[in-house]
Specification:
Layout lengths: L10 E2 L9 E3 L3 E8 L3 E6 L8 E6 L6 E15 L4 E9 L21
Antiparallel strand pairs: 1-3, 2-3, 2-5, 3-4, 4-7, 5-6, 6-7
Length: 113
């Protein structure tokens, strides 16, 4: 398992790095788990069938990015007495620009306290 098969580097949203807002059209909120130029993994209460086409909106107004995607897989991520959460992997029809989240705060200067 030493060979990396991914087509693009993924940005994972962990350790205090918050994901951008995301929705599956027509407007159902989802939580991005990771994001790359070629696809995304998101979590939601909705089950998607592999092969299904969808549109993922990343970001908020005034400049959200709308990306057409294809569902590659969907699996149960969490199950409890009152809810179920799915993780869905999608591949984008075209590469999209992605900012490396680890550098977002690198150039910010905070005022002295």
């Amino acid at each position: 398992m030493g060979d990396e098969r991914r087509r693009a580097k993924r940005t994972r949203f962990v350790n205090g790095h918050l994901p951008p807002a995301a929705k599956i059209r027509p407007g159902q909120d989802v939580v991005l788990v990771n994001l790359s130029q070629t696809g995304a993994l998101f979590e939601s209460p909705f089950r998607f069938r592999p092969g299904h086409r969808c549109e993922l909106q990343i970001g908020t107004a005034p400049d959200p990015m709308l990306v057409r995607a294809r569902v590659e897989r969907c699996f149960v991520a969490r199950l409890d007495a009152s809810s179920i959460r799915y993780r869905t992997a999608v591949s984008f029809e075209f590469r999209v620009p992605v900012v490396d989240n680890s550098d977002l705060l690198a150039g910010i200067k905070f005022p002295d306290e």
